Amino acid sequence: MGKYSQATELWFRLLKKGFTPNMVTPNALIHELSMASFMHKAARLLKEMVNRGLELDRVTFNTIISGCCREAKLEEGFKLRKQMEDWDIGSDIITHIMLSHCMCNADRIDEAIKLWMSARNVDWFQCLYIVMINGYGNDEMIDDAESLFNELVLQNSECMLFIIQ
To answer: What is the CATH number for 86?
Structure first.
């Protein structure tokens, strides 16, 4: 209902009263704050979570990275990805898709290709083809987009379902 401050304050009050926190509620709060472009409030909540000893998880990081990408703060997104690695929280396909998509939108297709190539040995690598096909298309590199599409077809990838839909 748009009452982000009240929801956040309620969560803090519950913590002060001794309720055992889990990651579901703060992750939902961070998501809603970032979707409403209140990244400064999401960052405050994140800092408070760390100060209270809550262990951030992949969902928390991906949610914040998503907010950074939505606001075209790509460098901050990559710093968060690095922090994930430093804290032994591995990035996943969601992390890579968001950052790759953000780079493509920022006309940084060459950097998106490097990130894409760095994931080649990961099980979900094929799904990044979709982001790159879209990035090439947006950059009017139709021949490259078609070439990747054909590679994906030859691999008979399950990721083709995303393109067909």
So the answer is: 1.25.40.10
